[in-house]
Amino acid sequence: MHRLDTIELFVKLLSFKSITPEDDGALTFIRDYLDDFSAEWVNKVNVKNLFLYKKFGEGPHLCFAGHVDVVPPGDGWQSDPFVPKYEDGYIYARGAQDMKSGVAAFVQACKEAKNFKGTLSVLLTSDEEGEARHGTIEVLKHLKEKDFLPDYAIVAEPTCENVFGDAIKIGRRGSINGVIEKIGRQGHAAYPEKALNPIHKVAQVLPHIAGVDLDDGDEFFAPSKFVITDIRAGMEVTNVTPGKLKMMFNVRNNTKTDKAKIEAFVDRYFKDMNYILTLAQSATPFLTQKDSKIVKTITGAIESVTGVDPKYSTAGGTSDARFLAEYGIDVVEFGVRNDTIHAPNERTTPEEVEGLKKVFDEVISCF
After folding, report:
1. Residue 289 DSSP symbol
2. Which one of 22, 69, 258, 346 is the catalytic residue?
3. pTM across the whole model
4. Among 55, 278, 20, 296, which residue's Cα sits nearest to residue 135?
5. Is 128 an annotated catalytic residue?
6. What average pLDDT does range 341-347 have in this prediction?
7. What three-state secondary structure class fits 283?
């Protein structure tokens, strides 16, 4: 396929209406664009996943990973979210920051790569913004079966905060969702002594659990916080006390807190009550050590291209980097500024996209 420049490629990718789990042809286009890379499809249910690779030599396997799917545009746009618009120095479209900028940058860097000491690969999915059950994780299972897992990976999610180049994510917090059901005894509000009101019981412990830090965090991670997200009970009447209360919470946990620690924390305050606790871990925390080759290489590349000394961060939600880390792959995340993702009029600048591509060029040449 005819080679585009980085911004032409970026604009082309933005034009695909690839709302999760659809790719709208974006993955086929990328396969055709990287026509000197071997291609493997790992499709599951209604999700398309594409793995592309090229072996240059016998050295390490470096993978660039990301997603082409985007969240629905929603309301409040000043232009068509799937017709990229350039105005006032910005390119506007859904996916401009999250994360077609990153995809365009690393696809172009791989397209132009001439010399590399090992294997370059690209892992793309159309199932990241949804439940992520049939996307990156399925490709990694496939690669493990083939004994072809990458040694290192870069996920090009938007990571920068104030200026391009100021932050790399070298880890992510996990996410544990919890439900506490406090069992009481329903009764008439006029006879509280004949009932057991679970609201009154839970109200006594709320000051001890709501918003409490479960650990002190560390150099890279904020403390794991017990965040209550929903409390409900009763029948929306004033003369009946409820028989049960349901409380939901979330803990974005670092490496110091796990499900067992949360169970012990809850039991400390609920042990004298009749309660049921259910926990589900949707993401596991990970940290790539700062002396890892991938961390040192991309840090040097960012400094070389931007003149900015990036900080190491683990802030934010979850990403597909967690799946790579679970397979023992040293993974980092780096991309454009993150200030309009999932919002109306999502935007980024051509300079950031081109700068990101130059960083990836530098990584490839120095790795």
Report:
1. -
2. 69
3. 0.89
4. 20
5. yes
6. 97
7. strand
